[in-house]
Amino acid sequence: MQQLHPDDVLWRNARLATMVTDAPEPYGLTERSAIVVRGQAILAVVPESALPSGHRNSVDLGGRLVTPGLIDCHTHLVFGGNRAAEWEQRLKGVSYQAISAQGGGINATVTATRNSSAEALLQLAQQRLQRLMNEGVTTIEIKSGYGLNAETEEKMLHVARQLGLNNPIDISPTLLAAHAVPVEYRQDPDAYLSLVCEEIMPSLWQKEFFEAVDVFCENVGFTPAQAERLFLAATALGIPVKGHVEQLSNLGGAALVSRFNGLSADHIEYLDEAGIQAMAQNGTVAVLLPGAFYFLQERQRPPVEHLRKQGVPMAVATDYNPGTSPFASLHLAMNMACVQFGLTPEEAWAGVTRHAAQALGRGATHGQLRAGYVADFIVWDADHPVEMVYEPGRNPLYQRIFRGEAA
Ligand code: DI6
Ligand code: FE
Fold first, then answer.
1. Which residue from 76, 143, 268 has its CB within 8 A of the most atoms of ligand 1, so it is best to mutate?
2. What does the angle CA 199 – CA 202 – CA 205 come to, to the nearest 5 degrees?
3. How much distance in Å is there from the Cα of 319 to the middle of ligand 2?
4. What is the CATH number of domain 9-69+367-406?
5. What is the pLDDT of residues 34-66, one digit of tens each?
6. Per CATH, domain 70-359 is 1.20.1250.20
């Protein structure tokens, strides 16, 4: 190990679950280890025995478990109102699609979001974010998509940015202006898409309000042809793309996302073999969202076995949103991914660390405990990482380290 500076911090006497790819032990578990932090980054991960003695800046973790900070790579955290009444209707037998066709669903949240001030949205989102941070989330993706006009999409992304300035967390903002056709464009969805491609997307991109563009490609959203048009416009501006695809039906959206070298194809319950092949070839991450699957009482499971066989990296996220996944818990999402989709707990952990980082284009800096990576990590009052997956709600978080600082 190189010479230490006096300001370097040794987080020592820990059991690490490094989550590195090539580790000999499951979860990258190593006993009696230490993380050496310089500034905001990990300088080295070393055995206790390799540490110099007498370094003044050191923290004894008492043998506790340390994992990378959790990454929630798919959320709709910023929105006004809630859809509890709609949910009651759904429980009486009205389908999500039927409610959506009646102007409810996403459009109900659009109205509530348009009618909320940025301050009000910020306050609501802050509470939701706090719950995720309490569970150890250090990076979160936040989508727009409840504005569906230039002004409100910008308001949502402004709130997302503000959350990052106000809290010890990394925000990855995504433009999801193509989430639904707004009521005022119901007769002419292509005109709305033109507005997104020609005005909303270029202007918010120029103002650096987001990192990637998303689309809801579905029979209640946008057609593959419309999604392709959006992706062509995004690619021309150098914007990375991703998609909500194959959630309720198979429209070939995942293959489309992959063709544009997309970061991730999300939901993918109805993904077919051709889609899996396309994802494997292009390195597109499969983002599994078991909260929405559970809440919509879906039956069709994503093809986990095939994704595994083809080596497609699988991430797990909350999809936190008022319509299909009102669960601000990544531990619960991990549990559901195992119970409902058949992931192993180790795959669920990779899904909220290494693979979630990859889904956000941060695979070279986030989601693993290794030299050169950002010093985001969580100290747990737990013996083994399976515990957070096994028992969501217990939350044995002991300490949260963001960019090298306890926070
Ligand atoms: N798929 C979903 O599950 C959410 N958005 C999407 O494209 C639902 C959003 C909502 O119902 O408000
Ligand atoms: Fe979503």
1. 76
2. 135
3. 5
4. 2.30.40.10
5. 999 999 999 999 999 999 888 999 999 999 999
6. no
